[in-house]
Amino acid sequence: MLDHSSKIPVTGDPLTDILRGLRLDGVEYGRCEMKEPWGIQFPAQPGARFHFVGRKGCWLKQPSGEWVELNAGDAVLLPRGEAHVLASEPGAKAWPIHGYELEEVCKDVYCTSNAEMCDKNCQPGTLLFCAAMYFNLDGLHPLLGMMPDVMRSHELEAYEPGIPHLLESMAREVTMERVGSGGILARLADVLAATVIRSWVERGCGDSSGWIAAVRDRDIGRVLAAIHLEPDHDWTVESLARMMGASRSGFAERFATIVGETPAKYVTQVRMHQARQWLVRDRMKISVVAARLGYESDAAFSRAFKRVIGSAPSHLRAEEQADIRQG
Fold first, then answer.
1. Segment 80-108 mean pLDDT
2. 31 near 79, Cβ under 8 Å?
3. For helices 263-280 and 313-326, what crossing angle results, to 10°?
4. The pLDDT value given to residue 321
5. CA 276 to the chain's CA centroid
6. SS3 of the chain: helix, strand, coil, percent, to 5
7. Of 26, 6, 8, nearest to 16 (Cα)?
8. In order of start, what are the domains of the chain with their CATH numbers?
9. Which residues pair with residue 95 across a beta bridge?
10. Coil, strand, or helix at residue 327?
């Protein structure tokens, strides 16, 4: 077996190595002009949700059920796309987002309002720009699991000098309705969401324990980075122990103590999470994924996949696509 460890880039920070390829892509955007009172229900979806408040504040009912106030110029990211509500005030009657009429103003950018639901007593309200986004990481990646339910831009502005400028640019575009503003807003939303995540990571991910602590361990972190960067490599306990410069037994014991599971189990989990990305996002055939991960048969791969993910790969693609359509 060839040792591919020489291909792993060395930056001195394993977490940086793991995050080098992190990408968040917007796939659908909406400009929403609401008259008060109003409320929008956003169902849970496999990807992330992003909201920018362009004019007049509103309220967000978080996945926890708690209401928080958002001001004009605020942006929020819900990295796991959990169900939530935006409304003119806490408890306002809310309608599902897909119950609104959408007008496509340019590719993947839509405009909507609640004017048809209002009477003469309705008042001018909030102007929103919303987006559905998808990570190139699997939804079960430990980094996504550690992210908070809601990430607010204003909480990171002091640490990320670029955020206020991005917010100002979005505010200008969303209120002026200039030619091409939809496309520019979409790109600004992508950049702002990525900046919020980067700032959160650079500030320590809000937690110094768990998986982040394991990645930042001087020796184990290098091993975890290698596994995540090359999940299709045929990693063995011996090759990983060599990378750390330890004996097989010493490495296995330290890995289990810090990470919380055996090296073999962790490698299998990472490989199956990558397999799910290849199957759903890249539309690879099961046989191709099985061969790429070194399984001798589709059946052997399917058993490992079901053990980790909870469903057979043959069922996964249809289930994921149905979730996307419903979200």
1. 88
2. no
3. 60
4. 53
5. 15
6. 45, 20, 35
7. 8
8. 24-202 (2.60.120.10), 217-326 (1.10.10.60)
9. 40
10. coil
Read off the pLDDT of residues 271-280 as tens digits, 9 standing for 90 and up.
999 999 899 8
Strands (E) in 56-199, as ranges, are 58-61, 67-70, 75-78, 84-87, 95-96, 103-106, 109-113, 123-135, 151-152
The answer to whether residues 29 and 129 touch, using CB atoms and an 8 Å cutoff, is yes
* Three-class DSSP category at 170: helix
109-113: strand order across its sheet: 103-106, 109-113, 24-36, 123-135, 48-55, 75-78, 151-152
Query: What burial class does residue 77 get, using C-beta atoms within 10 Å of its C-beta: 0-12 exposed, 13-18 middle, 19+ buried?
Result: buried
Return the SS3 of 143: helix
Integer Cα distance of 208 and 226 in angstroms: 21
| CA nearest neighbour of 154 among 192, 125, 190, 182 | 192
Report percent pLDDT > 70 for the chain.
88
Cα 69 to chain centroid distance, Å, stands at: 23
Tokens representing 133? Answer: 């986004």
**Which segment of 4-8, 68-72, 180-184 scores lowest on mean pLDDT?**
4-8
The answer to whether residue 324 scores a pLDDT higher than 90 is no
Query: For 19-30, what is each residue's pLDDT tens digit?
Result: 777 788 888 998
CA atoms within 13 A on the CB side of 127: 13
Q: Say whether pLDDT at 254 is over 60.
A: yes
DSSP helix/strand/coil, 28: strand
How far is it, in rounded angstroms, from Cα 297 to Cα 312? Answer: 14
86 burial (CB, 10 Å; 0-12 / 13-18 / 19+) is buried
Residue with tokens 């060839």: 2
